[in-house]
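Render this sequence as a predicted structure.
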Amino acid sequence: MAEQIQGIQRRIKSINSTERITNAMKLVSASKLRKAKAIYEHSREYLGRIVESIEEAFDIQERLPEKYLLGNREIKNTCYIIITGSNGLCGSFNGNLIRHVDENITGSCGNIKMVTIGSKGREHFEQLCYEIIDKHDPPADTMDYEKVITIADPLLNKYLSGEIDEIILVYTAYINSLKQEVVEKRILPIDLKSRERNMRGEVNNIEFEPSIDEVFEYLMYKYLEMNIYSAVIESATCEHAARRQAMENANDSANDMLRGLETEYNHARQSRITDEIIEIVSGAEAQES
């Protein structure tokens, strides 16, 4: 009985120690989540303005640049930009995205190229037959805009040279603190038919300097950069939300286990006291007889 009580006490002590760690991680993730969410909301607004400017340029030009438009080139080589986390303890955050890519990727190995952001994705896909043309292992929330430029600009150059024909971004989208979902988004070529064109009556009043062609070429680099940067920030936001939720679930499980162990400890302690009382009474009765 004494060994049973000591074993329960050791388990209670161990769970209390683990609970303190998970609670600290939950608080840290909640703080990082607020910061990442604020940055994401600002970047999303800027990206919307970039996309709007590109659509205005398309509306004004007499001859659209076909190299950027969907349906004007055969899709042979596709490049996937895979954004995962670099750390664990975040529930199914990384697993859901990797599973989505494995289940939905199309094309032969020779026609698929990948850029991985986050070590979890790199560790998985480098074991497969796909060619990883660029990889960045540091966590997404440590990546600044200058780093994104070193990823986006070479990709656009490869697209313009014909080395790749399609760029697809796969990341986790933030719905709310409790829900995130994997998103697959084609960045290039652009499908203008799927976009709403609301400015046809106003675009003639807009002037572009030095010329609309030069402005458009500049905007295309910004368009790709901001798509990747916004996805990186959103993915980091989702990772912090997933980790906070995972740590909260761990705390809840620890509390449930503690309540069960405390009940078990009280029962064992009460049984020990009862046994001792019985021994004392039995000894006293034996002496009297």
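Summary. The two ends are 29 Å apart (CA to CA). The longest strand covers residues 166-176.
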